[in-house]
C-alpha cells in the first residue's frame, strides 16, 4: 500500500519541522509495511516574492489528487503581509477542500511541564474551519476620514454549524462522552443564539453525550483553572483560534501543539500542520521543536487509516519526552529530538 503526500514546508522553521516529521513518518511506514511518497511544493512567502502569488493559479487542482497534505508554516520574510500569506495559501486550501474540522489535541506529553498545576488533562479542541468570523465578508468606507467605518461580517450557515457540531458529538462519543459547545450568545444575539439552538437540537440525537454550552470567556478561564473538567470542546473559527492558543500554552507551548484540518467526507485531501508559525526569531538556528509537526504527522497516519503506525509514532514521541528529550524550549536541537524519536520507533 502506498500513499501520496503533498509536502508544503513553507518558510522559516516550517522547513526544519516538516523535514523532521517526514523522516519519522517514513521510518514508521517502513516498519508497518506501507509506503509514503512525498511531492514537495515550494509555495511560501519566498515563492510570493518571486511570482506575486503564494501558490500557482492551478495550485488547488494540483493538490486535489493527493491522499493528504503535510504543511509546515508560512510567514517570512516580513515584507509579505501576514494577511497575504494566510489568505493566499492556507485559507484557500481549507476552504476548497472543505476541511471544515480543525482538530487540536491538548495534553501534556510525559516529562513536559506546562504552566498549570493540573497535569491530568486531555482536551480535544475542534475549531470550525471554513466560515464564521473568518469568512472575509466586509469592507471599509470613508477611508482616511473621521467618518471611517470598517465592517467584518461573520457568516454562520445551518449546514456549516450543524456539521461541525455533529463532528464534535461524534468525537465526544468516541472519547469520554463530554462535549463543551462554545458561544457568546448573551452578547451576539443572532449567530451565537443560532449555534446554541442547533446544539440543543442535535443533543437529542446523542443522548449518550453530555453537552454543556459555555460562553467563550468562561471557557477560556476553565481551560486554565479546571482543564481536567473538559473532554471535547467545539467552537467557531475565531473562538477556536484563540482557545487553541490557550490549549497550546497549557500543554507546554507551541512546540507541542499539533493540528489537523479534516475533510470528514473524504471528498478531498485533509491537511496536517503544527499550530505554530514560521518563528523567524529562531529560523536557521536548528533549535525548532519538531514534536508538534511529528504529532500532526501521526494524526495524518491515523486519518489515512494507518492507526497502528500512528499509535507507534505517538508512543515513540512519549518515550522521547519521558527521557527528557525535547522537553524545554531550545533545550535540544531539532535533529537530536528527531533522531531520538526515530530510534524509539525501532
Ligand atoms: P510563531 O508561532 O512563528 O512564533 C511564536 C513564538 O513561539 C516565537 O518566539 C517562536 O520562536 C516560538 N516557537 C514557535 N514554534 C516553535 C517551535 N516549533 N519550537 C520552538 N519555538 C517555537 O508566531 P509569530 O511569531 O506570531 O509569527 C511568525 C510568522 O509566522 C508570522 O509571519 C505569522 O503570520 C506566521 N504564522 C503562520 C502560521 C501558519 O503558517 N499556519 C501560524 C501562525 C503564524
Ligand atoms: Mg492561532
From TrEMBL:
Return the SUPFAM superfamilies for the record. Isocitrate/Isopropylmalate dehydrogenase-like
Q: Where is the Isopropylmalate dehydrogenase-like domain?
A: 4-341
Top enzyme class, one word, equals oxidoreductase
| Gene Ontology molecular functions | tartrate dehydrogenase activity
EC number(s) for this protein? 1.1.1.93
Q: What InterPro entries has UniProt attached to this entry?
A: ICDH/IPMDH, IsoPropMal-DH-like_dom, TTC_DH
Q: Does the keyword Oxidoreductase apply?
A: yes
Name the keywords, alphabetized. Answer: Manganese, Metal-binding, NAD, Oxidoreductase
Which cofactors does it use?
Answer: Mg(2+); Mn(2+)
Q: Which family does it belong to?
A: Belongs to the isocitrate and isopropylmalate dehydrogenases family.
Q: What protein does this entry describe?
A: Tartrate dehydrogenase
Q: Which organism is it from?
A: Mesorhizobium australafricanum
